[in-house]
Amino acid sequence: MSRCYAPGFPVLVLGESGTGKELLARHIHEKSGRRGPFVGVNLAALPETILESELFGHEKGSFTGAIAKREGRIAQASGGTLFLDEIGELAPAVQVKLLRVLQEGEYEPLGGKTTRADFRLIAATNRDLGAEVAAGRFREDLYYRLNVIAITSPPLRDRRDDIPLLVDHFLDVYCRKDGKARLALGRDALERLMAYDWPGNVRELENAVQRAVVLSKSSTISQDDLPRPIAEAEHHGQDLTFSLGTPLDEIEQRVIRATLDHTKGDKQLAAQLLGISARTIYRKLGADRDEPEPDAGEVPSLRALPAPPKPTPEPGA
Hints:
By secondary structure, the chain is an alpha/beta fold.
């Protein structure tokens, strides 16, 4: 990821719709050291008839309706970053002009004179641009100019450990916006959120949290406050089977160890998922000599992975 911070090269961000490509672009901009603004443009939302004027600007009288000079987005991003979302939607005629900007570092506003460009370009798409090039819908030379550094924003189903952090952020945003006291997230709701596959990615998660904040009638968001497809999502975790008569200590140890496997050894996170203290995990398993027990007041990390495994009796045992 750090290779993207070098400000001299274009970055191409790939990923499904709703995966947070603009947030990733903003993060790259902030880390790049460029002092100018971050200017974002959703190319899919702009009619082709005004796209060129929006990007490059125009002079007064350059076309019918141009009653005043207007700065384009490239000029607005001077010294900073221009983020072009849905770059695969760019019209062929505008692709040629954008290519010139990247090659020569200059552009011409409509009806104006050649102007030097000073911006860092980050483009994003949910399309396979290689396939678009093969189909003749996207210029090959522009594709190679954009594809200097390519990174992928993975779908939310492939990074479920981000879900609690995102939910925490959205709860802050929408509780404040709705004028409510900060709501807590119930464990049943967290398990459903972790189990759902999120075809709409981060955008769908944000919508689900906003809805839950509006509908919740208590201080804790429960499974019942979630949209039905999410509330009915099936558990993704591993099931553990025990014979009847298995000693309780053995069951507890196996559940704790399986949960630690899920959290890659993170005892604080395992404690959060199991609803116990980290001290209990240390006591049940025996503390590592090289790893001191946590302080009594230590708060578990607000990261999480899929719900912990659930013990089920072995049939017929």
